[in-house]
Every structure is written in structure tokens, then in C-alpha cells.
């Protein structure tokens, strides 16, 4: 891979050294996508919005946790009440900012798209959307098709 930078037009161009080689052509698009995500993350930032759907499902962002140890100083924790007998506490990774504009919404913001979406998937893992009642944790406007009840 070669990156050609034109200072006058302020544009960078990603080129392949040998266009006949298949692996280089495959990595060309992957590298371009990674660079675009990093540039977009630095300039605008990436967000993930999580919706908690269910009776009594709540989320809060706290500075201390009772069940989890802090990995770095000043770490925040997302506390989920999603139908278990105990609250689920997850440490927010470095570089991600979590907030709760409503008790049933979690807003994750960060520079790296992969880290933000990985943490959103980690939260979603605790209550995946289920197709019979439509309850669960939905990420970024995700929808599911409800199934009908079984009739004898």
C-alpha cells in the first residue's frame, strides 16, 4: 500500500503496489475503510444509541461500582437493571463516553468506531431482543419482526 498526499488540494490517495495481486486488492478496500473511520472519528466522533425495551428496564451511569473493580482512574460504570436479581455493572472502556439522556436510553460516544460498537454489543449481550414479546436491548435503531404465538 502506498499513500500519496497532495498538499495543495489537501487530499490523500491510497494506491496498490501491484494491482494483479489479489491480496493487495482485497486489503486496499479494508485499509481505506479503516482510514475513513479513523478520520471520521477524529473529526465528528462515532455514536451508538441503545434502547432498553421492557417493564422495569433501566440504565444509569455511575462513577463507582460495587461488583466490578476500576481498570483505570476516573472510570465510569454503566449500571443496568434488566430483570436480573442484581444490577449488572459494566466498566466503560477508555476513549468512550457514556450518558443516559433517559432512563431507557444509553448514548455511547467515542473516537474509535470499533470500540464504541464492541461496548454496545457487550451491553446488548445481557438482554438480546427476543421475537415473542419484543423486549430487550436494541442498538442503533435495530428492529425485530415479532413472531405469532403458537396456537393449538
Describe, in plain words, how this protein is organized in 3D.
By secondary structure, the chain is of the alpha+beta class. It has two helices and nine strands; from the N terminus they run ββαββββββαβ. It has helices spanning 22-43, 113-124; strands at residues 2-6, 11-15, 46-53, 58-62, 77-81, 88-91, 96-99, 105-110, 136-139. Strands 7-8-3-9 form a four-stranded antiparallel β-sheet, with helices on one face. A three-stranded antiparallel β-sheet has the order 4-5-6, with no helix packed on it. A hairpin with a 6-residue loop joins β5 and β6 (88-91). The longest helix has 22 residues, at 22-43. The radius of gyration is 21 Å and the shape is extended. The termini are far apart. 12% of the residues are buried. The mean pLDDT is 92.
Brief overview, please?
This protein is of the alpha+beta class and 152 residues long. It has helices at 22-43, 113-124; strands spanning 2-6, 11-15, 46-53, 58-62, 77-81, 88-91, 96-99, 105-110, 136-139.
Task: Please give a handful of descriptors for the protein shown.
2 helices; 152 residues; alpha+beta; 22% helix; four-stranded antiparallel sheet
Amino acid at each position: 500500500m502506498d499513500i500519496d498526499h497532495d498538499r495543495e488540494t489537501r487530499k490523500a490517495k491510497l494506491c496498490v503496489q501491484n494491482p494483479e495481486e489479489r491480496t493487495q486488492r482485497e486489503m486496499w478496500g479494508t485499509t481505506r475503510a479503516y482510514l475513513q473511520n479513523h478520520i471520521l472519528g477524529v473529526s465528528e466522533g462515532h455514536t451508538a444509541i441503545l434502547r432498553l425495551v421492557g417493564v422495569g428496564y433501566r440504565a444509569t451511569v455511575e462513577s463507582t461500582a460495587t461488583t466490578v473493580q476500576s481498570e483505570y482512574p476516573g472510570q465510569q460504570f454503566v449500571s443496568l437493571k434488566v430483570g436480573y436479581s442484581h444490577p449488572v455493572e459494566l466498566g466503560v472502556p477508555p476513549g468512550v463516553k457514556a450518558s443516559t439522556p433517559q432512563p431507557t436510553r444509553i448514548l455511547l460516544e467515542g473516537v474509535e468506531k470499533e470500540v464504541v460498537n464492541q461496548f454496545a454489543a457487550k451491553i446488548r449481550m445481557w438482554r438480546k431482543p427476543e421475537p415473542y414479546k419484543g423486549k430487550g436491548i436494541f442498538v442503533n435503531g435495530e428492529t425485530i419482526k415479532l413472531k405469532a404465538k403458537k396456537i393449538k
